[in-house]
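Morning F.,

Quick status update on the modeling queue. The single chain you submitted on Monday has been processed. Sequence for confirmation:
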Amino acid sequence: MSWRPQYRSSKFRNVYGKAASREHCFDGIPITKNVHDNHFCAVNARYLAIVTESAGGGAFLVIPLEQTGRIEPNYPKVCGHQGNVLDIKWNPFIENIIASCSEDTSVRIWEIPDGGLRRNMTEAVLELYGHSRRVGLVEWHPTTNNILFSAGYDYKVLIWNLEAGEPVKMIDCHTDVILCLSFNTDGSLLATTCKDKKLRVLEPRSGRVLQEASCKNHRVNRVVFLGSTKRLLTTGVSRWNTRQIALWDQEDLSMPLIEEEIDGLSGLLFPFYDADTHMLYLAGKGDGNIRYYEVGSEKPYLSYLMEFRSPAPQKGLGVMPKHGLDVSACEVFRFYKLITLKGLIEPISMIVPRRSETYQEDIYPMTPGTEPALTPDEWLSGVNRDPILVSLKEGYKRNSKIVFKAPVREKKSVVVNGIDLLENVPPRTENELLRMFFRQQDEIRRLKDELSQKDIRIRQLQLELKNFRNSPKNN
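Structure tokens below.
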């Protein structure tokens, strides 16, 4: 009997990446040089937001997607933070609402006017203070409107109800800096990775740790839920300092289902999962490649498909929601790649090659739209509900009718888990302290100049008085 190779049939085996032409990129953007391990980019069907390099605080740009080409140096910014902006995320249900977090210990909610910014925006519609150190991550709940999660360098995760403008829960089970947050499909579970080398699966409303893995051989950095498959995928580093991925059963984190080494490079691996096509994308920070796999329910679980190669290194990647893709071109995923050296944002489309120009239902199943499945009160009371699905057949462009209303807040204490989060004023950032120091030094110099001028005037008056007394007329 002759040997025959095992061919695997897959509709995505020929998916290829297509970079946009230069005129369809966003050029001339001073991308932030901050080394924090985030994407510094967020995108939805209307706007692209990028954290920029700025003096005297933190700022980010918000650019309408149709405004491609070169961006003017004096383009308006969102610049209300007093410290560097570390993370930005668009509200999945209201396309002109964006959350940002910063080294100034605050989380802020911004409302972008229709058509984009015409002048610098410094006033947020809502400012949230509760962390005692800088805030590194923000994440919206996937099915509930106005529920926001934030993770700070105080090792705490705060759950904010934006209708009240207050934190409703504090998760305090981590012993080091939280690196990543990921929700399952209905938002009933939260997975976190932490610098203490542990992977945790939590019930977010109670803060209870359901599963915990101590990853000694696989130091985890990033985690992502693989849709409704009850599996997690983590990226990290092996004991030999090679980049590695691991697949886990969310109900048993004692041992990973598989571990696979990727390469020997040092940049962080960002995982992205598309639940509609069951495709996993791996993009390395500092290199230009994007690998993609198909995730199966049986061993070997991960099947390598192909790799998009580019010589330009990426600092981060924004991902377009499904309802913002071009279904007529069989586009199944789209990245927005940050190229710091060129000041360029380059869209990269992942395309399934098809000859037919009709709608391809097999690669575009029903997908989450822009309508929330739950209200904050329902979710906080313990209700779980899957996201509301829509079809992309007619080109889903429906705008949500939900309007964000900032609460009217009075000055009062905020008690969570018996702790008053506003009892102590958050410590100032290093940049803010330096600005205060230089302002004080300038004020001291000004006062010294005034005193010296007064001393000179006094001496002049004393001399005039002496001359007047010694004059012959007075004698």
